[in-house]
Write a structure and sequence with these properties.
globular, about 15% strand, 12 strands
């Protein structure tokens, strides 16, 4: 599992809208065929996006689940997209359990009933679910409805080339954005023709894992007010973030930076510029530790939390990830809940998946397990997940649309095509409000 892709607005937003009249399954318990009180043998279906090796890793956990609950057999179908899950609910033939890779979509699933409300099940489970990280609540619930639980998570930190730091006389990773700017300039080298040879940091907010989502805790961004209205024009931290970005872009030169970025290798390839020494610092997810171990074994680097505006929040970050839920129309919801609870809360299962998939587990017990704390660079990411100020981007009916609109704005802003920052932020906030209103079809949010 790598980054949770958020570019699924199109058909997915339309299908979620079409489901807005559905009702949620509330107050169901573990009673029923396949549940703890009725161990009638059942086969339940699980759909996930996993394929190839990763699907095999999940299948290993399903075998362990079957040993615990021998009357439940799980038929795991991999390679299924979020859109396929939504379409199956619309068609009345959904899987019993679904794993979603797009945490931006879950708010819509909760609001429309695409995933059943798990609130009463979670309350009844008590200690079994109480260890789930609170930071995951924002991307597994919406408007008081908890319709999913996290399985594994992605968190983001700052990766830095330790050899380059030593050569530049930098003794520690930057803790604030001005420090990052200063270090980026020290670490940048130019070719004789003035083009960028090595960038200290790429400030574009659409470069690899740089985006308004991953930067949210670092700039303490408020996305929405209590009424759900977009706050880009009202929260001054948004303007501060974009101002910081533009100042560093202008120091490099927009055209020079564009040319440099265009020359770089792909993010998930062995030619990733951070791994090949063409980029000194980069924002990336926890998976980069595994990629570097596989693709750049002699590469010397360290990890740290992302810079923050406030020293008191240093150590925190943003969290998102894989979610699991019970689709509306599940034929074996009692057995399905046992699988959901197992994959999301069982410590041995989460630790095993972490070791196999190299993502972050999502309960306090699994995060503390010494078996996953053997590489200090990965441990940094675990500590970010556990930090009290770590949070996720709040979801809306509009799924990934707010992020996509802000990415488009960031591209125009960096290019110098936005003459008035505040007016531009007000405009994008209005567009986001319009997208949410359209997706919710006028329903209360």
């Amino acid at each position: 599992m790598r980054r949770r892709t958020a570019g699924m607005l199109g058909v997915l937003a339309v299908t979620v809208l079409l489901l807005s009249g559905c009702t949620t399954g509330v107050g169901q318990s573990e009673a029923g065929a396949g549940g703890l009180d009725d161990k009638t043998p059942v086969t339940i279906s699980l759909w996930s996006f996993f394929t190839a090796r990763e699907k095999g890793d999940v299948d290993a956990r399903l075998k362990a689940f079957h040993k615990l609950y021998p009357w439940i057999t799980v038929d795991h179908v991999g390679g299924e997209s979020d859109d396929n899950i939504v379409q199956s609910v619309r068609g009345g033939n959904p899987p019993d359990v679904a794993i979603s890779q797009n945490s931006d979509s879950v708010s819509g699933y909760c609001a429309t009933g695409t995933f059943q409300d798990l609130t009463s099940r979670i309350a009844a489970a008590g200690p079994a679910t109480s260890s789930v990280l609170p930071a995951t609540a924002a991307y597994t619930s919406y408007d008081g409805r908890r319709c999913a639980l996290p399985v594994l998570a992605d968190v983001y930190g700052l990766y830095y080339n330790t050899d380059m730091f030593q050569k530049a006389g930098i003794t520690a990773p930057p803790r604030t954005w001005p420090e990052l700017t200063e270090d980026a300039k020290k670490l940048t080298t130019f070719n004789p023709d003035g083009s960028i040879k090595v960038a200290g940091f790429v400030p574009f907010l659409d470069f690899f894992e740089n985006n308004v989502g991953t930067f949210t805790p670092g700039f303490d961004l408020d996305w929405y007010d209590a009424a759900g209205k977009a706050q880009m024009a009202n929260d001054p931290n948004w303007a501060a973030m974009f101002t910081w970005e533009k100042q560093l872009v202008d120091w490099y030169g927009y055209d020079k930076l564009q040319t440099y970025v265009a020359s770089l290798g792909a993010e998930f390839s062995p030619q990733n510029p951070f791994q090949t020494g063409k980029l000194a610092m980069a924002v990336d997810g926890e998976w980069r530790v595994a990629f570097a171990a596989d693709q750049a074994k002699k590469f010397s680097y360290g990890t740290a939390p992302m810079p923050t505006e406030s020293a008191s929040r240093y150590g925190s970050g943003v969290i998102s990830g894989t979610t699991i839920g019970i689709p509306k129309g599940s034929k074996h919801s009692a057995a399905a809940w046992l699988l959901v609870k197992y994959l999301s809360t069982d410590t041995s299962s989460l630790v095993d998946l972490t070791l196999r998939l190299r993502n972050v587990p999502t309960t306090t017990q699994s995060l503390a397990d010494p078996a996953i704390r053997t590489d200090p660079r990965f441990t940094t990411m675990l500590d970010i997940a556990a930090d009290k100020d770590t949070r996720s981007v709040p979801g809306t009916w509009a799924g990934s649309a707010p992020r996509e609109l802000l990415t488009q704005f960031a591209q125009s802003w960096a290019a110098g095509n936005v003459p008035d920052l505040h007016a531009g932020l007000a405009s994008v906030a209005d567009q986001i409000d319009s997208q949410i209103d359209q997706a919710s079809a006028g329903e209360s949010r």
